[in-house]
User: Which sequence fits this backbone?
């Protein structure tokens, strides 16, 4: 029996076009093993500001799309920079829209970090996700030091050490989502 395909949704916490966080997630989609798909979520900047009055049916289209993509995913890959010692506002907004989503509790989450700095935001993000009842997969969480490198996905894929680290993390994450 062939293993089932694991579908991962990659969410970058950065809105920057040349974001190293987004480049890392794009590289992950290129390096995914045959039984893993990695789809990059691209709607972060289009989400309305969270407002509980809008968290009713019918949901804003962008929110409904986010929730549907999260529900369909076996796990979430998150790569977010640190802004002012915290989680970027646009990314926190997306998490706020997921708080009342029935699909989020228990969702496996791995961090693909693009900087060895940002300890404060990592701690804040961990606290937020634990509060939201995510299942954090530390064994599949990695840090690839890209800060200040202006590296794109292709350069990451072409680097043997980075490619191996990402590929191994994706295999561990896929295994954890199936457990």
Assistant:
């Amino acid at each position: 029996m062939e293993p089932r395909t694991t579908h991962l949704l990659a969410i970058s916490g950065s809105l920057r076009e040349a974001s190293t966080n987004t480049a890392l997630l794009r590289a992950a989609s290129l390096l995914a093993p045959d039984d893993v798909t990695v789809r990059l979520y691209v709607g972060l900047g289009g989400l309305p500001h969270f407002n509980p009055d809008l968290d009713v049916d019918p949901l804003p289209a962008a929110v409904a799309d986010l929730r549907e993509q999260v529900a369909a995913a076996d796990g979430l890959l998150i790569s977010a920079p640190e802004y002012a010692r915290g989680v970027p506002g646009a990314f926190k907004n997306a998490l706020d829209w997921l708080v009342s989503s029935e699909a989020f509790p228990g969702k496996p989450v791995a961090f693909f970090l693009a900087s060895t700095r940002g300890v404060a935001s990592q701690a804040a993000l961990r606290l937020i996700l634990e509060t939201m009842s995510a299942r954090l997969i530390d064994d599949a969480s990695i840090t690839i030091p890209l800060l200040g490198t202006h590296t794109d996905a292709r350069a990451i894929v072409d680097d043997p050490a980075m490619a191996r680290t990402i590929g191994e993390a994706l295999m561990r994450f896929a295994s954890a989502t199936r457990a």
